[in-house]
Write a structure and sequence with these properties.
single chain; eight-stranded parallel β-barrel; Rossmann fold; 3 domains; five-stranded mixed sheet; alpha/beta; 39% helix; 16% strand; TIM Barrel
């Protein structure tokens, strides 16, 4: 099948028999929308996902007008050899045909996307209760997640004699370190071992801060009224102590809205001062997934010129806060710098639900059910139901247990391993329907930054016997 359009580029689509109808439905619409010529090559194989580049090279028929070839996303192998055989560039398309519109119509990622100017300070809580090995392991993991500085969290009303040893060990690993303490003795040990930042300084320890020779975080004696903060800033500035200001973010129900106003007030009083925000008081103390909260707070910081955030990962729902802040700071830097919405730029921060749902239309599922001749099972989530199709079988239900009972009635010899596989896939499909996510068989659901790719157990197992079908 070949057609021409106004544009010069001609794309040659490669597929298998079962995907022919769907591809011939989608591609003409895309060609009209984006303006390309196309041809569709249906190769002699049932499942397009089982094609290899070597196999494609033996069966492909490319028209002279073609400028490039688009093969299914599951095709793996040496594409260079296929390009040499065809004499054209080979592109790998999406794994799901329903994602072709997004593949062709998506906006390209801006060239400068990924820049940032907000520093992430990641705190390890209760360090005096941890072993050195445990602290080092956590610190390296936080660095890998995007932390710029590792903060050593000490305990109030106590002086930890081992703080210097820990800081020294972290510095030996090439890590930047801060110390979270108000105790001058504890702070001095940490600074001598290589800590470069002190959290925090107020009237209780500002006299000692003059002699530490490192940057400090100035905080108020009373966050609600900002009492003592101006005096601390003035004393530190006169002594040429580098500082950042943290007016203290309060939890919801304990002055959250008012505390945001304090950051605005401090920026008004000190328009050129460096500032920090501790975001953990919101992420750790609010029954909500932390990604949205971190993203919102990083947007506030970016607009106000707050160039460092302190985060923790204690409560389970905030266990990926550092990664979230790392992505959010890049998203917000781009949005604020370019005066664009922070939208359609960072898919990894959208975790519970997908950006948009990709479903195979019911009519295509019915057509596929009519065309299938083999006994492999295909699972779809469409129209609020789970669909299970195979040769002479098309079952559907909203309940995977009911669907499995229907299958057992139609195929009483179903072996346990196959039943387990189908149950696992139907569970994923059911979850996708409940949470308004896209489901594709043998693929992990998209959980944003928390996604873990899955091995395509079923098709991979069958590939050797189906290659010539």
């Amino acid at each position: 099948m070949t057609t021409r359009s106004r544009q010069e580029e001609h794309i040659h689509f490669v597929t298998g028999r079962l995907a022919q109808h769907a591809l011939e439905t989608i591609v003409p619409v895309l060609a009209e929308q984006t303006g390309f010529a196309y041809s569709i090559d249906v190769l002699p194989i049932t499942v397009a996902a089982l094609m290899s580049p070597q196999w494609i090279a033996k069966h492909i028929r490319v028209p002279k007008a073609a400028d490039r070839v688009l093969i299914p996303g599951y095709c793996k192998g040496d594409l260079l050899q296929l390009e040499k055989a065809v004499g054209l560039p080979i592109n790998v398309g999406p794994r799901d045909l329903q994602q072709l519109p997004a593949y062709f119509l998506r906006e390209p990622t801006p060239l400068n996307y990924g820049e940032f100017d907000v520093e992430i300070i990641a705190e390890i809580n209760n360090c005096p209760r941890r072993t050195l090995e445990e602290i080092l392991a956590i610190a390296k993991s936080l660095r890998n997640d995007g932390a710029d500085v590792i903060d050593i969290g000490c305990e109030p009303d106590d002086c930890w004699p081992g703080v210097g040893e820990v800081v020294h060990a972290l510095r030996d690993e090439g890590l930047r370190v801060s110390i979270d303490s108000l105790n001058p003795t504890e702070i001095e040990s940490a600074v001598c071992a290589g800590a470069e930042l002190v959290l925090s300084v107020n009237s209780s320890n500002r006299d000692a801060a003059v002699d530490w020779g490192v940057e400090v975080i100035a905080i108020p004696d009373d966050p609600e009224t900002l009492a003592g903060l101006d005096e601390t800033i003035d004393q530190l500035a006169k002594a040429n102590v580098p500082l950042r200001i943290d007016p203290i973010l309060e939890p919801i129900a304990f002055g959250f809205a008012h505390s945001l106003g304090r950051y605005l007030e401090i920026r008004r009083r000190y328009p050129d001062a460096e500032m920090m925000m501790g975001v953990g008081n919101l992420t750790e103390l609010t029954d909500a997934d932390s990604a949205g909260i971190n993203t919102l707070l990083l947007g506030f910081c970016q607009e106000l010129g707050i160039r460092s955030v302190l985060t923790t990962q204690v409560i389970h729902w905030a266990c990926t806060s550092v990664r979230e802040c790392d992505l959010a700071r890049r998203l917000m830097f781009h949005a604020v710098s370019n005066q664009v919405f922070p939208k359609h730029l960072e898919p990894k921060l959208v975790m519970l639900r997908d950006h948009q749902i990709s479903e195979t239309p019911l009519e295509q599922i019915k057509q596929l059910a009519n065309d299938i001749r083999d006994h492999n099972y295909r699972i779809f989530a469409s129209g609020g139901s789970i669909h299970l199709i195979s040769s002479k079988i098309h079952l559907q239900d909203t309940d995977p247990f009911s669907l499995m009972e229907q299958l057992r009635s139609s195929n009483p010899s179903l072996d346990p391993s196959h039943a387990f596989y189908l149950g696992y896939e139907m569970c994923k499909a059911h979850t996708a329907i409940l949470l308004k996510k896209s489901y594709q068989q043998d693929e992990s659901l998209d959980w944003g930054l928390a996604t873990r790719p899955e091995t395509r157990h079923y098709l991979k197992k069958k590939s050797s016997s189906k290659q010539s079908s």
